Structures
1.
Amino acid sequence: MFLERTHQSASCTTLVSKSARQTIFAHDSIPKAPHLRSPLIYAGNKAPLAAFTASLFPADSAKRDWVEPFVGSAGLLLNAPKCRRYVLSDINHYLTELLLATRDHFPELAKEVKKLFTLENNCADRYNEIRRMFNTELTGVKKSAAFLYLNRHCFNGVVRCNRAGAFNSAFGHRSSVITPLAELKSLGAFLAGVTKIKACDFEETLAGIRHPSLVLLDSPYLPSEDGQPCFTGYAGTSFGIDRHNAIAEWGTRLSDAGHHVFVFNNDSPAARLVHSRAQEIHTWPAYRRVSRNVATRGMAQEFLAVYRPRCAKPEPDQLRA
């Protein structure tokens, strides 16, 4: 793929692919902007990128649906612009159950959260016991409160489940107890206007799109070729190249039907090949904090592939193929 430098500013170099007419924006950095924090700790949380991502949205965003099949920590969602409606999903049903409890049973959930976030529970023994109870006996709002506790007390907020669906992340040795009630309340207030929250595979959510939409896809990443640690699987399953190819196919199909699709990933030759049909690629340096080994933490390149509409109005029949 031949690239030609077409523009360079103090913070961004713009390249254009002569073969595919793909524009690549190489950002030196992404400006920090004020943002609402999620009550959940997730590696790769995109809340700090919300303002930058929104700057790429079309002018008619308020008339479009916000569709997010990998909602994760809801960092992007909390900082989303006004849209027609919000459609959220994730394969991790513990997460979607917490979102539903936050929306529908906030007072009861807040009460249970206060019970768990104590100095006495900030140790490995209590963490392991609460994790055992979460995996074997807790239900309903108590289970959702325990999921939030485990997320905030495990290593780097890394939510890991084994193939049987049991939460198995290790204790993170937090130096202090921070109860995220204010963040939980903000999330609950936002979710009050969200009518659809579902635990399902991303393709089920994408197949249900009918109204003009903004589609945000922050899936597990492709493996980094520079050795930097990143997530390549979730919910006890691997997220391989076939799934990334499926995301790219959906990007093309949905953009052909009039939707705007935004896909996050590592910036690597493999990722660029997968998303070679995206009209735009935005890249920037990001700091990785996931690895247990401090020596392997550091800067890595990330990107956002943007698939723009190729026709004026979405045609529902195009999505049913």
2.
Amino acid sequence: MIDRLPGAGPELATPLYLAPQAGVSESPFRRLCRRFGADVVVSEFVSAEGIRRGDRRTWEYLRFDDAERPIGVQIFGAEPAAMADAARLVEEVYRPDFVDINFGCPAKKVVSRNGGSGCLRDLPLVQSIIRAVAAAIELPTTVKIRSGWSEELRHPVEIALRCQEAGARALTLHARTRTQMYGGRANWDEIAAVVAAVDIPVVGNGDVWTGDDARRMREHTGCAGVMIARGSHGAPWIFAAARAALDGRLLPAEPTVPERFAIMLEHARNAIAFERDEHRAMIELRKHLGWYTKGLPGGKALRQELFAVRSLAQVEAILAQYLERARTRGWTDAAAEVDPLESTTDEPVEAAVGAA
């Protein structure tokens, strides 16, 4: 029985994880989540082939600061030998606290090459990849899976047992299938079933939107850790709320509008320091700025301005102008509340990423 999650200290009964998310879990955001109480963070998922080829942009994804520790690096691919080579390089060059294997990504461009959740259609391949990676490195090898490829191939307990047999030291289950993508509800009963079936620690993932959701997941499933993904978008403070809920303490108040903007600017400065190219950092940050402003009165107009920023000075000016208008209307005196009209809008936040 392995009773402690790789990367998590022994003093925490239920560590909180920031999920690996492409285009989201970059170093600046990871550092912010750590400040708010994430106990362990995981990198964006990185292509094993890109690592082997020495692709410059791929290697950029692997960079992290020691302040982010404990941290895992997540890799994906469908060739056991390539995955082993990539894991070995990650260990030698970056020395994270563990290496995680992605068997959960549902993106078409990944599964079309049999990577991510595409591997779940071939469980012997899943085991071959885990064995190859675990044999290649000294660091703990962990895995992130979904409940299966489809409803017809929904066998989370079998998948988890195979991962354990192949050498995984811990496992995260996002309790949806690949065909569900991010729709429907995560089946927490499946997390509980996996916890009961395996001897390795299990981290629960799926539909943790509030601090209290983290508490309910632990109580419902008995999971050893809780991983937060989309619930962190524009809300890194969810980790503080989750820790309070897990510890049985009063949940902290939601940030006021000025406090939320101060966090946005901290994120922006982190991004510039990490990227070393202010223009590029601001383009990458636009999606985060959109998420931070969801639910604010007049948020749609605010996002239209923020999606065009190219510098920190522009962000500071736009937020200052918004606060000046908001003060005259009483919007800034309490925690940000969702505007009923604003919450019905669904403009594509992600579209801001590629706009130059």
